[in-house]
Please model this.
Amino acid sequence: NEEIARVLIHRMQDQGATTCFTQGNQKSVVPVMLAIENNLPGVVELLVSVLDSNASWYPTQDASGQTAFMKAIILGFDEVADVLEKKISLRELDEQSQVGETALHLACKHRRSDVARQILFRQKNHSTSASLYSSRTIRTHHFRQTALHYAAESGINDIVGAYVDDLLPKSDSGHEKDLIQMLSLQDQHGFDVLQLSIEHQNENFAREIFEKYEMLQDSWGVNMFQDEGSHKHSALHLSLVNRMDKLSDRIFNFFAQIWARPTVQSYQGGVSMDVVVVRELVSAIFSGHDGRAIDIIHESELSQEACVVDQEIGVSAFHFAILKRREVVS
Model:
């Protein structure tokens, strides 16, 4: 009963009996947590107004280490979450649960776009560049995922711009390195955010993220495409397998433009002739020039070499022909 709760809070406040606001019941659940669980934003606001933001009920009150703000996000009580977000500090926003999740992780995981944008806005406007990067790259303890990994899984692509662009102020190109490092972070299974979004078939998210890759093209190297083991495939491979044709075309074009740089061409001088020929074959397949592809196969007498995975794009010429549905070539 919200009305009775309000009367009791005011009465206890008037009598200076505020210690009861931080005392738990038999299950050690404090009043503010009960108010959150019952979706009573007015009671929550009243309780936190008489408590300091560092009071004992706030940081980790339940058994899983979740804060009051985290609990409101999980339960989907946006009005309660809005009340709490305005009351807590930036440091408290970065508090982690026992599994390493922050409030931003949970907002992304549970598709609370509005709450996630509120947190991102607070971080942007009240953080230094270093602390902003630190907040955006907090990773869970076991799966080593950032909140952006969670967003890639759940597919809330409307936060990508705020999450990523804040790390690249137009007046300070030196922060490109921070942004590249963040986009390159891999979880326990070796997936970065682009690969994870493709794996979970969140094509709109993948496109939003890949726009950031394109924006950083001059600063990036070809190793973004590497296939680093049998359990994980490159972004190019994943986009081909998942029939994201437009995205795979953009990824390959991006790769080809990087490869065309003089510095990369000089690097290619150190690889075997077979590798160079296979890359010509892959380019012909990608461009739809089946006749040229077949000529390369016959002229170079390629066989086994065409089945070897190119470590820089994560796909063999043979797989590429199949995935691009070039039946005659394959």
Remarks:
- The CA atoms of residues 30 and 156 lie 33 Å apart.
- Residues 56-60, 227-231 have pLDDT under 50 and may be disordered.
- The chain has 20 helices and no strands.
- Residues 245-259 form the longest helix (15 residues).
